[in-house]
Amino acid sequence: MESEVTLVLRDVPYVIKGDCVGVEHGAYALVRDQQSLVCAIGDFDSISDSQFKSIVDNVSNIIKVSSIKDESDSELAVQWCIQNGYTRIHVYGALDERLDHQHINCLLAYKYPQIILYNDMNRIQAYEEGEYCIEREDFNYFSVFAYDPANISLIGFNYPLDHYDLRIDELKTVSNQWIKKDATLCVHQGKVLVYLTR
Predict the structure, then answer these.
(1) Domain boundary residue, one of 120, 148, 179
(2) For range 64-78, the mean pLDDT
(3) Phi, psi of 95 (to 5 degrees)
(4) Global pTM exceeds 0.90
(5) Domain encompassing residue 144
């Protein structure tokens, strides 16, 4: 059985249920919205002293790290979640504003397949070797990319592929669509990053 947690990196317009970890400003946003946290993590250099005090007053487990470090606050939070037994990590607030942060968070999803990134338009998740049913739900587009060489098949999409060698410079695997309500992704070799987009 999966043990799930939600990471919140910034203000998000959702009520988060279950275990929550606030990262940097996301910790303050959760406290402000009176949502409980299992942990707050970050260097907290993007919030005011009064905002940090409200975190201290309301969260029992705070991990304050130096602003001079090799990992991003997001990656430290992901590592904490994995070390504490969480097997599925839902991440909100990772795909907004700064493009460099968006990119690093997508790389995090690729590095740690336990992660699913969300915003209003997208859901992003890595898939390792295996066969997966990809439901359309309310998404319009399916895109798949690889940072390292991978071999994939797509079945039930408008543009099917059969044992296709996917490389980092591949550009034609964007904006595919489902023929019916679900389709199949087979990752024969390697690992891929899938974007579902509304």
Answers:
(1) 120
(2) 89
(3) -120, 30
(4) yes
(5) 127-197
Angle value at C-alpha 62, between 79 and 10, nearest 5 degrees:
70
Q: How far apart are alpha carbons 61 and 44 in whole angstroms?
A: 14
Instruction: Supply φ then ψ for residue 19, to 5 degrees.
Output: -65, 135
Which tokens go with 39? Answer: 């942990």
pLDDT of residue 91 exceeding 90: yes
Tell me the C-alpha distance between 120 and 177, whole Å.
19
* Per-residue pLDDT at 103 exceeds 90: yes
Kindly state whether residues 146 and 115 are assigned to the same domain. Answer: no
Q: Over the stretch 122-169, which tens digit does the pLDDT of each residue have?
A: 999 999 999 999 999 999 999 999 999 999 999 999 999 999 999 998
Reply yes or no on whether the pLDDT at 171 is more than 90: no
Let me know if 74 is exposed, middle or buried by CB neighbors in 10 A (0-12, 13-18, 19+). Answer: buried
| 3-class state of residue 42 by DSSP | strand
Q: Are 76 and 112 in contact (CB under 8 A)?
A: no
Q: Report how far residue 198's alpha carbon sits from residue 97's, in angstroms, rounded to the nearest whole number.
A: 19
H or E stretch including 184?
strand 182-189
